Amino acid sequence: EIVMTQSPATLSVSPGERATLSCRASQSVSSNLAWYQQKPGQAPRLLIYGASIRATGIPARFSGSGSGTEFTLTISILQSEDFAVYYCQQYNNWPWGTFGQGTKVEIK
Amino acid sequence: EVQLVESGGGLVQPGRSLRLSCAASGFTFDDYAMHWVRQAPGKGLEWVSGISWNSGSIGYADSVKGRFTISRDNAKNSLYLQMNSLRAEDTALYYCAKARAAAGPVYFDYWGQGTLVTVSS
Hints:
The structure holds 2 protein chains of 2 kinds. Chain A is mostly beta strands. Chain A has no helices and 11 strands. In chain A, the strands form 2 sheets. In chain A, strands 2, 4, 5, 6, 9, 10 and 11 form a 7-stranded mixed sheet that branches. Chain A is globular. The mean pLDDT of chain A is about 95. By secondary structure, chain B is mostly beta strands. Chain B contains no helices and 11 strands. In chain B, strand 4 and strand 5 form a beta hairpin. Chain B is globular and about 40 Å long. Classes of the chains: A mainly beta, B mainly beta. The interface of A and B includes residues 43, 91 and 93 of A.
């Protein structure tokens, strides 16, 4: 079974700075990797799929990269509305929809 | 506009059953697989179960296999989750999620707001 590991658990960043979040798969998932943003009291929102393709309506400051087992989500210039929890999800292998444990991006 | 509206959650005793529903609108329901994802209080996301567009392919997480049953009614644009033999560890917010394809492992492009299931005596 694939295990998705995100780091760090918490990232403290000042508004206007860059945030870099990591996601590692225990075995290759090719480019079948998605990123979601979840704000308190809200459902998750799809940000990135195919490791690097922004979903509809997602600002260009969000970018994804990587393939195989190592992936990165970068938020180039953090806005106040970007402080949230971010999850990666692999959809290459069974079980379907394996999520990482999340990275909380908080205000420094 | 895509809308997914879950219902059926509530407080239930351990060992009892509950049936969740998800009403979908704003897209061609029978073109897409549908899934249930849950989130325990203060915890991360856990995929629970998924069903292909025609119910021909169904999957469950090991944690619910043999206790939960997913189904769909394409004529009613609805997704269901029958939960039996509920345990305290099933306590969570249950989200209905639309897959981006008709079947197989996929990502989720739309989510409902969730329905809360609390298992407690």
